[in-house]
Amino acid sequence: MCEINGPFNSLPGKHGSATYRQAPNPLNLHQVDSLDVTIVVDNAIDILLPSDERTKRPPLTWDWSEKRQLIAEHGYSVLLTVHRNGEARSILYDAGLSQETATHNLDILGIDLKHVEAMVLSHGHADHHGGLEGMLRRIGKKKLPFILHPDAWQDRKIVFPTGTEIHMPPPSRKLLEDEGVQILEERGPTLLLDGSVLVSGQVERVTGFERGFPLQQARRNGNWEPDPWIWDDQGIICNVKGRGLVVVSSCSHSGVVNVLRNAERITGVE
Predict the structure, then answer these.
(1) How confident is the model at residue 197 (pLDDT cuts 50, 70, 90)?
(2) Cβ(240)–Cβ(249) under 8 Å?
C-alpha cells in the first residue's frame, strides 16, 4: 500500500457529487495537495515488509498465523484518494480477477467503499473486472460513473506459441446495468472529481519498441483476428503539488514509455 502524505484508510466523511466531464483541450487538471494509493489486489504480497514514512502496511501481530491474511492473485485493483482544499475524495481503478479477492482484502484492510464516487476500468481483460460485482455492491450507489474505453467490450483470447489458448472475456454489460451504474464509454481523456483526477483515455503510441501484446486475438464478425494493440488500455493521472504527475497504470499494455509520454502530452506537465 503506497501512499503520498496521507493516512492509511483515509476515506472522506463528506464528499461532493461524482462530477465528470470529457476533458477539454487544453486540459485543466487541478493540482491536489496529496494522493493516497491503496493496493487492493496485486499478483504478489510480502507480509514481512515493514512500513516507512511513505508506505503503510497492515501491522504484524503475535497471532498473525491465526488470522485472515491478504490474498494475492493474477489481478489488479487500486483505490485512489485525492486530498484537495481539506477534502478527500476517492475512485476505484479495476476490480481484480476473482469475485472474492478484492472484497476479502478490503475487509482485512478495514476499508469501506461507500464514499467512492466513480470507477474506472483500465482495459477489458478479465483479471481487471472479475471482482466487479462484489465491489459495486460494496459501493452501493446507483448511477455510479463507470468509465471504460469502447474496445473493452471486445471478446478476446490469448494464443500461446505452444498452441494453448485462454479466453479473455469482456466485462458483463448486463451485470453493470443490473447494478445500476452509469456506463461512460470514452476514447479520449476524462476528468473526474471536479478536475482533480484524469483518466488518460486511449494512449498515443509513439515508440517503436513497445509492440503491445502480439499473442492476443479478438473476435470480430464471427472470426478471430490479430489484436495486439489493446487500444482500450488507459490509466489514471494526478498532479500532486510539489511532486508533479503521478501516473497509475495497470498492465501498461500501451508500453510504459508511451503511457508516461502520453500523460505529459495531454496535461502539458513534464
Answers:
(1) very high
(2) no
